[in-house]
Design goal:
The complex is a heterodimer.
Chain A: H1 12-16, E1 32-38, E2 44-51, E3 61-63, E4 88-89, E5 95-101, H2 104-111, E6 114-120, H3 127-131, E7 143-151, H4 154-160, E8 163-171, E9 183-188, E10 194-198, H5 203-214, E11 221-225, H6 239-253, E12 257-260, H7 263-269, E13 276-284, E14 290-302, H8 308-317, E15 328-336, H9 350-368, H10 372-379, H11 399-410, H12 412-418, E16 426-438, H13 445-449, E17 452-457, E18 463-467, H14 476-488, E19 495-497, H15 516-542, E20 550-553, E21 556-559, E22 562-566, H16 567-574, E23 580-585, E24 594-595, E25 600-601, E26 607-619, E27 625-635, H17 642-661, E28 667-668, E29 671-672, E30 691-696, H18 718-730, H19 741-750
Parallel strand pairs in A: 1-12, 10-11, 14-15, 18-19, 27-30
Antiparallel strand pairs in A: 1-5, 2-4, 2-6, 3-5, 7-15, 8-13, 9-10, 9-12, 13-14, 16-26, 17-18, 17-23, 20-21, 21-22, 24-25, 26-27, 28-29
Helix pairs in contact in A: 5-6, 8-9, 9-18, 14-15, 17-18
Chain B: E1 2-4, H1 9-18, E2 22-24, H2 30-35, E3 44-47, E4 57-60, E5 63-67, H3 72-77, H4 79-84, H5 86-94, H6 98-103, H7 106-112, H8 120-125, E6 129-134, E7 137-142, H9 143-146, E8 147-149, E9 152-153, E10 160-167, E11 173-181, E12 189-200, E13 203-212, E14 219-220, H10 222-228, H11 235-248, H12 259-277
Parallel strand pairs in B: 1-3, 2-3
Antiparallel strand pairs in B: 4-5, 5-10, 6-7, 6-10, 8-9, 11-12, 12-13, 13-14
Classes of the chains: A alpha+beta, B alpha+beta.
């Protein structure tokens, strides 16, 4: 049995011994190095670009937008983001000029001899300024996209509610902080093929972007993913920019060019999590049933649209949390500002929405005197219930299981009581969150992509998996072989994995949206099943037997109960000249319906559910928060590899706790101030206690062996649980992330708790 | 770049007298600045890492003589510092993480002149002196007088810090070190405080308090000490000391913390100190 066992990840040895090659480890013959000249102002007209006569420009190559043969844009949703600025810059850090030189030092030096002369324009730096239309940046109203979800009659329901609770919640940027900064190497081959290799999540996104920029046919662009040191969504759309820049330089220099950012440049240039302001107005009956929810979300998209509409859409759909409510109006919009574009980041709009939703539940419990657990139990979605988009949840709804297990294992109810009204200088608190995350693309997304994957069977009876889904640390290259081994009943050692190269693997859709295991994994399983069927067909044909009479089990083909031949024999017989390749495409589970116009229907084929309980100790002299224990209970459908699933959840939980307690981007006049690891604060091993991770398997009938997507789920619940724990410990109700000691002090002062003692 | 690696003081002084040079010890501050282009690369570097005579900790009776090139790890493990400078040991343990402690030096912490230098509140609270050498001779300056402004010191271009002269903690003396960083390790201080006191017959007979990251330089909280001296520790004193400290510090808001937080926590830490020693 392969699925359900914690086999060692395939890349473990090469990574821990330092043998894995990342893009910066490659040194191609004659390779030059790129550097980027970026805007130093948030909004301006470029008047002039001045190349200093004090630098010998003959030793380098320079590119600007005029060197782009195709359209000057990063192809995504809207065609609004240029690869290189032309006459206007819209954010600090926007690329304007590229330089390539024989050494990295010389390339960087050259950038210091380029001066951009600006005519500054008024800059819009916050959500409020954008909504006030201080300056028109996009369309008439600065809104990239808006969505409304309506169910029932929320106004009437609010008017008739026994209890109405309001709350406003704010979150700022979060930096991706993958360990490996962005980097690419581009080469133009003798036949004109553009070859780009580097750190990325979605080879076919880069492929498409390069085709548009350079007006090349499909087969004239090849994208290869090198070992990638983390992605989190930060390497979903952004690598297209780096790849485009490297390719421009390589074309002009006539040699390979490597463009690798250092940490500060990555901080300045790359996409972050969208800041948001989220308002809740919730109506309840006297006994604590939700009857009305009015939710308003505004996301800051930054200077260009990137994937913001899709991020917003997921945020809007998840805005209520995993709860029942018959009357709902959720309005969301994403606005343009003169700050660096925000983009895909693990959670994709849900961490913002889930923080607001769960803090609102805590506030309701506090204001109306309900138990936080009972309030959630009374309202949470269960099998057969209907979501805000009208989706009826027919299977795999784990809310009750995860909540019950979390409460029981953490002794939550008892501690919640004990920790109220403490007076010491160190105070404990406990906090809870219940959350869910839709697996796969939103709405009709998967149907539009119809991701493909294939397997190849060769004369040695080895099976090769071909997929565009990449390994970014989450375990793709380990779990796909497990799925195939299980489907075919063979040894894992017989299974290979093709490199992530657009010339070799089909487009499985991007490695995003918690879809790799559940969606593409199911396609890989189908391809393996198709291989089985193809071999049965060939054996039946060659042995003159009816196909129905031939079966397969664990490496052996049978006619009725008599062994016919082994898989190895079949390989020798049918694959002498060429391997057998079978391909499969994704198709939605039966009955899935989505309407883009009304935004109703089955938003996701299934959801993963989780509950977190976080216990903290707050130092009342310094307002520092020490994490005492963190428990995560997750309904994952089926853990293909339990250790990897736990690893995903632990990593995501730490990232969520960073979001909740530490991580903050500071800005001044559109410039990010803390662009170093010394001042952009993520938690260290000393800040995080041992994490307790419980997996619950509530199978999804259409996932591979029941698996659901869990990559993003753990990003959603850590922050509200930690902040609820701070409230339990101190009475300080924090509504803005991160809940730093500074914000705790302010909240305590507002609740007058402290002013008496000063 | 020209790099000298002198092995004697005379050699080091001669280089410093003849050329404008930057002294490099463990490199934990300078390498970061140079790598991130915050500071320009100097033309000449004097690497003092091999100057073993600067890496000793000696018992000189009333004071410990701690060589400028002593690392935090040495300070953490040395019996003399463990016995006679426990607050400095506590401070050394909180700096960066083990890798930084193995390379970072006390002389570097002093000369780098960051208001957030974690050893500095201890040195200022204990009336430490800085020993400075050059071809012109040796002089000592009280740490309190060593800084003339934000990241400015009295060091002349031809001089180098050779040692810290740290008075030993008295047997009847108690001391505490509090670092409030942005996280549990690898953190730069938001507020850092060292305090010492001698209690005699329930009264505070001697007191010294150094605070960092709350003013352009590390400060000695003299007004707060004045409020405490000769008094017994009760609620009234705690309140008065807290108020005085909050007025005495001159913090700013930056990417690490806010002015209000630093002021409040400085006050709280004095109160905590009094609570802990009573």
């Amino acid at each position: 049995m392969s699925v359900g066992t914690s086999v060692t990840r395939r890349d473990a040895q090469s990574k821990v011994t330092g043998q894995a090659l990342y893009v910066d480890d490659y040194r191609l013959p004659n390779m030059w190095y790129g550097a980027t000249v970026r805007s130093t102002v948030p909004h301006a007209r470029i008047k002039n670009i001045h190349y200093s006569p004090n630098f010998d420009w003959s030793q380098v190559v320079i590119c600007d937008y005029r060197d782009i043969p195709g359209r000057n844009l990063v192809a995504l949703i809207y065609d609004d983001q240029p690869l290189l600025a032309e006459s206007i810059v819209r954010h600090v850090g926007e690329p304007i000029v590229l330089v390539a030189a024989p050494s990295k030092e010389l390339a960087r030096k050259a950038t210091r001899y380029v001066t951009i002369e600006y005519e500054e324009l008024p800059a819009v730096l916050t959500i409020e300024e954008s909504l006030a239309r201080k300056q028109k940046l996009f369309g008439e109203d600065n809104i990239f996209k808006s969505y409304t979800i309506t169910r029932g009659n929320v106004d009437e329901a609010l008017a008739s509610a026994d209890i109405v609770v309001e709350g406003t919640y704010r979150v700022g940027h979060q930096e991706q902080l993958y360990i490996e900064p962005n980097g690419m190497i581009a080469t133009v081959q003798a036949d004109g093929t553009l070859l780009v290799q580097g750190s990325l999540q979605c080879p076919y996104y880069v492929h498409r972007a390069l085709k548009e920029l350079f007006e090349l046919e499909d087969d004239k662009v090849v994208v290869i993913q090198n070992t990638t040191g983390g992605g989190f969504g930060g390497k979903e759309e952004f690598p297209s920019v780096v790849a485009g820049h490297a390719a421009l330089l390589a074309r002009k220099a006539g040699r390979p060019v490597k463009l690798v950012y250092d940490r500060s440049e990555d901080f300045i240039a790359s996409t972050k999590r969208h800041p948001a302001i989220i308002r809740h107005r919730t109506g309840l009956t006297r006994d604590g049933r939700l009857i009305a929810a009015e939710i308003d979300l505004t996301f800051d998209g930054g200077a260009y649209c990137t994937l913001s509409p899709v991020v917003l859409s997921r945020g809007v759909i998840h805005a209520l949390g995993p709860y029942n409510c018959p009357n709902v109006r959720i309005s969301g919009r994403v606005v343009a500002t003169n700050t660096p574009p925000n983009g895909a980041f693990r959670g994709f709009g849900v961490p913002q929405a889930a923080f607001a939703a769960e803090m609102q539940m805590e506030r309701i419990a506090q204001v109306a005197g309900f138990s936080p657990v009972e309030l959630r139990r009374k309202n949470m979605l269960r099998e057969g219930d209907t979501t805000v988009t009208g989706q009826i949840l027919n299977y795999s709804v784990g809310t009750a299981q995860v909540l019950d297990a979390a409460i029981e294992h953490s002794d939550y109810l008892n501690k919640l009581q004990i920790y109220r009204n403490q007076t010491g200088s160190k105070r404990r608190g406990i906090g809870l969150s219940l959350y869910y995350h839709g697996s796969g693309f939103t709405g009709s997304g998967e149907e539009k992509i119809k991701g493909r994957a294939a397997v190849e069977f060769d004369k040695e009876a080895r099976i090769r998996i071909l997929t565009g889904s990449t390994e970014i640390g989450q375990g793709t290259r380990t779990i796909f072989p497990q799925i195939v081994a299980e489907e075919l009943g063979i040894d894992l050692a017989q299974i290979d994995f093709e490199e992530s190269n657009t010339a070799k693997v089909p487009d499985s859709g991007p490695t995003v949206a918690s879809r790799t295991c559940m969606v593409v994994g199911s396609v890989v399983q189908k391809a393996a099943a198709a291989l089985k069927a193809e071999l049965i067909r060939r054996i039946a044909l060659s042995c003159s037997l009816p196909e129905e009479g031939v079966s397969y089990k664990r490496g052996i083909f049978y006619h009725q109960d008599q062994p016919l031949m082994t898989l190895t024999e079949a390989a020798a017989r049918f694959c002498q000249h060429s391997p057998i390749r079978t391909e499969a495409r994704y198709s939605s589970p039966p009955g899935i319906k989505w309407d883009d116009a009304s935004y109703t229907g089955d938003a996701y084929p299934v959801y993963a559910y989780a509950a977190d309980v976080v216990e903290v100790e707050v130092d009342m002299d310094t307002y520092e928060v020490k994490l005492i224990s963190v428990l995560t209970v997750s309904d994952v459908g089926k853990a293909i590899n339990p250790r990897l699933a736990e690893g995903q959840i632990e990593g995501g939980t730490v990232q969520a706790l960073g979001y909740g307690l530490y991580e903050e981007v500071f800005w001044k006049d559109g410039h990010m101030l803390n662009t170093r690891l010394t001042n952009y604060i993520i938690p260290t091993a000393l800040d995080i206690p041992d994490l307790e991770t419980i997996l619950i398997e509530n199978p999804y009938p259409y996932g591979p062996f029941g698996a659901k997507g869990i990559g993003e789920l753990p990003m959603d619940g850590g922050a509200p649980a930690a902040v609820a724990a701070i409230a339990n410990a101190t009475g300080a109700f924090i509504t803005q992330l991160p809940a730093t000691p500074e914000r705790i002090l302010e909240a305590l002062c507002q609740s007058k708790h402290l002013s008496d003692s000063l | 770049m020209k790099v000298y690696s002198p092995t004697s003081l005379q050699e080091a002084y001669e280089i410093l007298a003849s050329t404008e040079a930057k002294i490099l010890a463990g490199g934990t501050d300078l390498m970061v600045l140079w790598n991130s282009n915050v500071a320009k690369l100097p033309q000449v570097v004097v690497d003092i890492w091999r100057m073993k005579m600067l890496a000793q900790i000696d018992d000189e009776g009333e004071v410990l003589r701690i060589g400028a090139r002593c690392t935090y790890t040495q300070i953490i493990n040395n019996p003399l510092t463990k016995n006679f400078a426990p607050a400095l040991v506590d401070a050394a343990r909180t700096i960066g993480a083990v890798q930084i402690q193995n390379r970072g030096t006390i002389g570097g912490n002093v000369v780098n002149a960051s208001p957030a230098g974690d050893s500095l509140p201890v040195l200022v609270a204990f009336d430490a002196k800085v020993e400075i050498g050059s071809l012109r001779g040796v002089r000592t300056v009280a740490l309190e007088q060593f800084y003339t402004g934000y990241r400015k010191t009295v060091l002349a271009a031809d001089e180098m810090v050779t040692a810290i002269l740290l008075p030993k903690q008295r047997e009847d003396e108690v001391s505490k070190f509090y670092k409030i960083g942005t996280r549990a390790a690898q953190a730069i201080s938001k507020v850092v405080m060292a305090a010492r006191a001698v209690l005699q017959g329930g009264l505070i007979a001697a007191v010294g308090i150094g605070v960092g990251s709350v003013a352009p330089t590390v400060i000695r909280a003299k007004a707060t000490e004045g409020v405490m001296l000769g008094r017994q520790i009760d609620d009234e004193l705690v309140t008065a000391a807290r108020r005085t400290m909050m007025n005495e510090v001159k913090p700013i808001t930056d990417v690490r913390s806010t002015e209000f937080y630093r002021r409040t926590v400085s006050g709280n830490l004095v109160a905590k100190f009094l609570r802990e020693i009573v």
